[in-house]
From TrEMBL:
Domain DUF1996 as annotated: residue spans: 3-205
InterPro entries membership: DUF1996
Domain of life per record: Eukaryota
Pfam families, per the entry: DUF1996
Name of this protein: DUF1996 domain-containing protein
Length: 208
């Protein structure tokens, strides 16, 4: 961004980042913003070879605000078995979204382990330190366009989401951008209602 300052801890980072907010909708239909804890965390992974920096003006979107169900096996098969449709861009884009149940008194869940928002009873009973929304962005680029009309078609996921081979036509490798946001869902324990992402999504992709 063309700015003299930034809210990022790394002062050189002038990029703009956005993820949807999380709301709680109670029995009376009153909507409350769920508190973020720990800020927003951005990781840049340098997986692969000959990684190129993001060019000036580069933009992209990850995720699908209209997707309401996760359409692949649960849990994910071991990655060595991924093949065919399981490594299609449709599949990889769904597997790039994670909802991590946080309970620091237990062993942690793997990143990108669960691809849907658990229901409230599960959150109340298991996730006393909240829920962490995880999003991996595509890291394969067509090497030409800094943006496209849908902000997606100029990039693609490698074959294992975070690592792997880039598909034909997207041979330029970019840094792997991985985003985390933690929400204090436990503050609403034992209250009747549901959690809804700010785009109106109450599931984050429910299993089909």
């Amino acid at each position: 961004m063309d700015s003299d300052g930034t809210s990022c801890a790394v002062s050189q980072d002038k990029s703009a980042y956005w993820t949807p907010a999380l709301y709680f909708v109670g029995e009376n239909e009153i909507t409350e913003l769920v508190e973020q804890t720990g800020g927003m965390l951005v990781y840049y992974f340098l997986n692969g070879k000959n990684i190129k920096a993001f060019p000036p003006g580069f933009q992209m979107i990850a995720g699908d605000s209209r997707q309401r169900n996760f359409t692949w096996p649960i849990p994910d098969p071991e990655k060595s078995f991924w093949s065919g449709d399981a490594v299609s861009q449709k599949a990889l884009s769904q597997k790039a979204l994670g909802f991590n149940c946080l309970n620091y008194s237990r062993d942690p869940e793997p990143s990108l382990f669960r691809h849907f928002l658990p229901d409230k009873s599960y959150l109340d009973g298991n996730c006393r330190d909240g829920i962490r929304l995880e999003l991996m962005f595509p890291s394969c680029w067509n090497g030409r366009d800094t943006d496209t009309s849908n902000h997606k078609s100029h990039v693609a996921y490698p074959s294992l989401v975070m690592t792997g081979d880039c598909p034909v036509g997207f041979s330029t490798q970019l840094p792997g951008l991985y985003y985390e946001t933690i929400w204090n869902t436990y503050a609403f324990k034992d209250r009747a209602g549901k959690f809804v992402l700010s785009n109106g999504d109450p599931t984050g992709m429910r299993p089909s």
